[in-house]
Amino acid sequence: MLRRDKLIPLARRFFSPGAVMDVGCGGGGFLRRLGEAGFVPYGVEISDALAKRASPAAAVFGGRVVLGNAVDGLDQFSDGTFAGAILISFLEHESHPLPLLAK
Length: 103
Hints:
By secondary structure, this protein is an alpha/beta fold. 38% of the residues lie in helices and 17% in strands. The protein contains five helices and four strands; from the N terminus they run αβαβαβαβα. The protein has helices at 7-14, 29-36, 48-59, 70-74, 97-102; strands at residues 19-23, 40-45, 65-67, 84-86. It has a four-stranded parallel β-sheet with strand order 3-2-1-4. Strand 2, helix 3 (48-59) and strand 3 form a beta-alpha-beta unit.
C-alpha cells in the first residue's frame, strides 16, 4: 500500500509543475498539501458540503473545486489542463472506472 505521505514526492517526480486534479477531493486536505508543494490544486467532489469546504483550500493557491461526479466534473476542463491527476481511495468506488480513466 502507498502511504499518503509519499504522494507529494511522487507528484513532484511524475508531474510537471502546474495544475493537478484531485478526483474525489473530499474536504480539501490534500488540495492544501498540493498547493503548499507548489502545484495549482483543483478538485472534483460529489458532496456539496465537502466541495464547499474544499474550495478555499484550492482557491488560495489559484485552483478551484467543481461540484459533481468525476466524469462530469472533469468535462468542465479542456484537455491538457492538468499536469497530473490523483485519485486517493477513489477508483475502487467508481461504478464505471473506464470512462473516468479515459478522461
